[in-house]
């Protein structure tokens, strides 16, 4: 399955990608923003690179890796844009994150496989 990439910003090498500045939304609900940033930081670590990326807004050093879940791939520094600059991500991704967090919260897990394993204490 091909992961959908998000949070990769315009650069000289990729002028077709979005610029984060117009996506800054200071009205974005703080709790939702915090949840999204936390989710981004907890993504599975993917590739790591030699060079660090710099924030396109404040120019701080901002990550050198990629993170992912089973649907999306993002740069490890994306949470910085969300938490420090309120760069609002697409609504579809926000609802994906909130849905995943709700599912964890509800503890709706399938224990069938685990119970069937041969472990006998
Ligand atoms: Zn920044």
What does this structure look like?
The structure is a single chain. The chain has 121 residues and is of the alpha+beta class. It has one domain (4-107). It has four helices and four strands; from the N terminus they run E-H-E-E-E-H-H-H. It has helices at 30-41, 78-85, 91-106, 112-116; strands at 4-5, 44-48, 65-68, 72-75. The longest helix has 16 residues, at 91-106. The model has no long low-confidence stretch (mean pLDDT 94). The structure holds zinc ion (ZN). The site of zinc ion has 7 residues, from helix 2. Zinc ion (ZN) is lined by residues 55, 57-58, 60, 80, 84-85.
Distance between the termini: 38 Å
Return the structural class. alpha+beta
Bound molecules: zinc ion
Residues in β-strands, percent = 5-15%
Rg measurement, Å? 17 Å
Chain-wise SSE layout:
Blueprint: E1 4-5, H1 30-41, E2 44-48, E3 65-68, E4 72-75, H2 78-85, H3 91-106, H4 112-116
Helix pairs in contact: 1-2, 1-3
Bound molecules: zinc ion (ZN).
Residues 55, 57-58, 60, 80, 84-85 line the site of zinc ion.
Keyphrases for this structure?
binds zinc ion; four-stranded mixed sheet; globular; alpha+beta; 121 residues
In a few lines, what is going on in this structure?
The protein has 121 residues and is an alpha+beta fold.
């Amino acid at each position: 399955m091909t992961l959908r990439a998000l949070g990769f910003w315009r650069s000289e090498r990729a002028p077709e990608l979005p610029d984060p500045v117009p996506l800054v939304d200071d009205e974005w609900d703080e709790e939702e923003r915090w949840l999204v940033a936390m989710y981004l930081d907890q993504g599975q670590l993917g590739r790591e690179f030699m060079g660090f990326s710099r924030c396109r807004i404040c120019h701080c050093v901002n990550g050198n890796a990629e993170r992912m879940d089973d649907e999306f791939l993002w740069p490890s520094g994306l949470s910085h844009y969300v938490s420090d600059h309120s760069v609002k991500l697409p609504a579809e991704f926000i609802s994906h994150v909130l849905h995943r967090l709700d599912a964890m919260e509800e503890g709706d897990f399938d224990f069938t496989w685990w119970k069937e394993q041969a472990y006998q204490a």
